Amino acid sequence: MHIQDIFARDRTTFSFEFFPPATEAAAEELFRTIASLQELRPSFVSVTYGAGGSTRDRTHDLVVRIQRETNLVAVSHLTCVCHSLAEMTAILDRYAASGITNILALRGDPPRNMPNYDRSRDAFQYAEQLVRFVRSRTNAPDPRGFGIGVAGFPEGHPGCPNRLEEMDHLKRKVDAGADYICTQLFFDNRDFYDFRERCELAGIKVPIIAGVMPITSKAGMIRMAQLALGSRFPAKLLRAVGRCADDDAVARVGISWATEQCADLLHNNVRGIHFYTLNRSDATRQIYRNLGVTDSTALRAD
């Protein structure tokens, strides 16, 4: 299903994000986890995409398997890093032949083992250019072309300290052909509401999905901060985590915090919630139960 049809159907979208595992055994386990989410009937699921060759292959294999063996809508991530124009063309041709309709177009980061990688060798330097290229492809399974998502950063893009310039970049990505924005994770909803309002001021009118990741361990929280995946932790959250004796308690705090976030987002008419699952569905399922949502179709427009 094309992402435009999903937004037309669902008053509020619910979606889950996974990353391709490193081994075949882990891939089988992950596929079972993803398939089990069919009962929740999410709007779509997405699979991340690394700069390494084997990771890319696993992304493609996992997305195609989701497409063929489940009733879930799969969105594949695609990054600019380490790609020639011929490689980009071949990837989109493979997706089109496999019936993959939707892409999340990202600039991406070089692999950690390639700190001195020369980005000038890439066909596209910026996500805006990739969006424009994906939009130009006419062999997509849908006559409208591929559905395209782009990233948004409520706490600010780590590579662009000028927040005014940041919005200009985002507007160009949307104008290049993006259908929606999926935000990076955040822990203070005020950051999201401010971001949403600044998008409105910039003339950005596409749906904006809020990215949510429940904290499940203290080590995971530290890792988020180190990777700049959501480094603005409210003091109230830090105090709650600091009171925890072990990671089981941290996970309960994280689920409770994320539940409150989601409830507030729904109350304030969020267009969608995207869960960063870290390849586990337990926390997401618990948040669903806490919200009283056992089937996301309950929030569909029809």
Question: What order do the helices and strands come in, and which of them pair?
Answer:
Blueprint: H1 3-9, E1 13-18, H2 24-36, E2 44-47, H3 53-69, E3 74-79, H4 85-98, E4 102-106, H5 127-136, E5 147-152, H6 163-175, E6 180-185, H7 189-201, E7 208-212, H8 218-226, H9 235-242, H10 247-267, E8 272-276, H11 282-291
Parallel strand pairs: 1-2, 1-8, 2-3, 3-4, 4-5, 5-6, 6-7, 7-8
Helix pairs in contact: 2-3, 5-6, 10-11
Short recap of the structure:
Helices cover 45% and strands 14% of the residues. By secondary structure, the chain is an alpha/beta fold.
Please tell me how large the radius of gyration is: 18 Å
Number of helices: 11
User: Roughly what is the average pLDDT, rounded to an integer?
Assistant: 89
Proportion of strand residues: 5-15%
Overall number of structural domains: 1
- Uncertain spans, ≥5 residues at pLDDT below 50? none
Topology, number of strands: 8
Largest sheet, in brief, is: 8 strands, parallel, barrel
CATH topology: TIM Barrel
Give, in order, the helices and strands. Answer: HEHEHEHEHEHEHEHHHEH
CATH class descriptor name: Alpha Beta
Strand order of the largest sheet: 1-2-3-4-5-6-7-8
The level of helicity is 40-55%
Derived structural class: alpha/beta
CATH architecture group name: Alpha-Beta Barrel
The CA-CA distance between the termini, in Å, is 17 Å
* Shape assignment: globular
